[in-house]
TrEMBL record:
It comes from Streptomyces collinus (strain DSM 40733 / Tue 365). The chain crosses the membrane at residues 53-71, 83-106, 135-156, 168-188, 208-235, 294-324, 344-371. This is Sulfate transporter. It comes from the Bacteria. It is a multi-pass membrane protein. Pfam families: Sulfate_transp.
Amino acid sequence: MGVAVASGVPAELGLVTGIVGGIVTGLMRGSSLQVSGPAAGLTVLVFEAVKEFGLPSLGVIVLSCGLLQILMGALRLGRYFRAISVSVVEGMLAGIGLVLIAGQLYPALAAKAPDSGLGKLAGLPGALLDALGDGAALASLALCAGTVAVLLLWRLAPARVRTVPGPLAAVGLATAAVAGLGLPVATVEVRGLLDSVQPPPLSAFGGLAGAGLLGTIVAFTLIASAESLFSAAAVDRLHDGPRTRYDQELVAQGAGNTLCGLLGALPMTAVIVRSAANVQAGARTKASRVLHGVWLLLFAALLPDVLALIPVPALAGILIHSGAKLVPARALAALWREQRGEAVVLTVTALSIVAVSMFEGVLIGLALAVVKTAWEASHLRLEVVDKGAGPIEARLSGNATFLRLPRILDSLESLPQDRPVRLDLSGLHHLDHACRTALENWAARHSTPGTVPVQVTAPAPRAAPAGTPAA
């Protein structure tokens, strides 16, 4: 419900997605213990999509996302999501966490949040100053702070008390405080599950002709699939049971999202927090994740009036706590000491999501990760041997790509033109077309009339594969 409210859609749609994620996705093959449902990681993207295209188009987006996931699973592409840079994924989650924290501070202050990520951050000081003179806003902020405090301190409670999950205890205490003290705070508006289900109208499918909606669908598909499969890999490390079958899990996620799209609900992913709680509670079979959806269905069907008592600031506190856990502050410090390039990719991805949007931020992070990998793969060593007399020896070894051209040409062009030069390329493992052409042009320019032409030793030929007939 908190994810739904933060996404700008009716709270019941979060319950619908949780029910489908448990009962439908939970029954299918793939992962045995991870729990699926609405994810905080997609909150920002859903909010932006609803704002730009409208709530009816959300069903079209989620339905298309589900069909694409089923197709990718059928084509056995699930395993390839493990090749996505971990730094990009962590940066994506960190950016989501920052936007989530900034966005949820506004309902905690009983204020309306700006639309953009930078606007949310810039508007916080003013919203806080306005709240200082408003009793209702201060009560809302105190309830949110109390919820976060319960979540942080719950791990210190006796083991018998901790059998109740921290978020459930925090929401329960906040609800009791509002009822007992009569605090003037907003509560969740509940209409009932059946009333909230709104299948997308046929007119909403016309947006598929636009590049904006298609780009959003691709972003939903990639992020939801990556988050689900990364979650599966993490959950597999928490237990000794059956391992996740990635392609089948992708099909299961697609089936769930297809049904969620037909119902007009939120997109689903596997969620590492719920999945880890499931394993830590002693889960052994997929019945645990199916029952997750069953309990949601029974609670929403039998006790809908209880849901309307939940205060919005309490849900904001839970999401602020969840957003803070998405920001890997300690891991980033360790990464900066060990692999600064990866730390830069993580940071740039997160800040791009805050400054621009989810889709563009992830694309920027992926592009930076590719450039970083290409740069690191272009290890090149240039050794110049000048004995003072005779030809100058210039030896290149490693991988010569266009990324290293400035360094190569600066060094070669600094060689004296009145001396013969021998350019030895036999130590190169790879020489791309750009470098080959640039070296040939340099050799032609350096071999001016009256000087000995540059002697070039070609790269060593690659060994032929075993069984290949000789030419």
